[in-house]
Amino acid sequence: MKTRDRIVLKSLELFNEQGERNVTTNHIAAHMNISTGNLYYHFSNKQEIILAIYELYEGELLERFSPHYHQQENLALLKHYLDSIFTLMWKYRFFYANLPEILQRDSALHQRYMRTQKELSRNLLSILDSFQNMDLVTFTDIQKSQLCVNLHMVAVSWIAYQSSMSLNIEITQKVIYQGMLQMISIIKPFGTSLGKEQMELLEEGIQVMLA
């Protein structure tokens, strides 16, 4: 693996474990047993590393929510949707935990993030249409737009919300699974009989992972 790629992956690991605020380029270099000069050859500062991590996140995000996944049926599509959101939330949890501060430091990254989120919202609306076409949910166009916003808000802010509820909370996969249940609770009131049955099966599977 190239040194640049190793720096990106090790930085992601450290940011997730210790919090992005607490990790410097010196920490990253020491963790990798390389000189700071070697690190600066690839990245001028920590913000450039964050941008490189964001590029990985963005690529995975758009791939997981691309339209070709919508050909799945019933439970498979719903499970894929939830798994995708929270798999990425876990993998890039430092980003979700400190999102406003990270974006405020870099206007170019903020603009890129907003473009990505607009595309994600369009894809999410398409997924909700797929749910409705499969007779999993029923809603008006206005309700669909509101549901899209509510799901997006939970996906973006769940980790930050949990962190704010306690100074000592540790973000674990259990917290992520709880977020999945929260997402289901938002969709469930719009479920048809078939949809609610599918969602209850999902809830049972998640509860097993929480036990």
UniProtKB/TrEMBL annotation:
HTH tetR-type domain: residues covered: 1-61
Superkingdom: Bacteria
Pfam families: TetR, TetR_N
SUPFAM superfamilies linked: Homeodomain-like
Key word DNA-binding present: yes
Keywords for the protein's UniProt record, in alphabetical order: DNA-binding
DNA-binding region ranges: 24-43
Keyword Cytoplasm: no
PROSITE patterns in the cross-refs: HTH_TETR_2
Classification via InterPro entries: Homeodomain-like_sf, HTH-type_Tx_Regulator, HTH_TetR, TetR
UniProt name for this protein: TetR/AcrR family transcriptional regulator
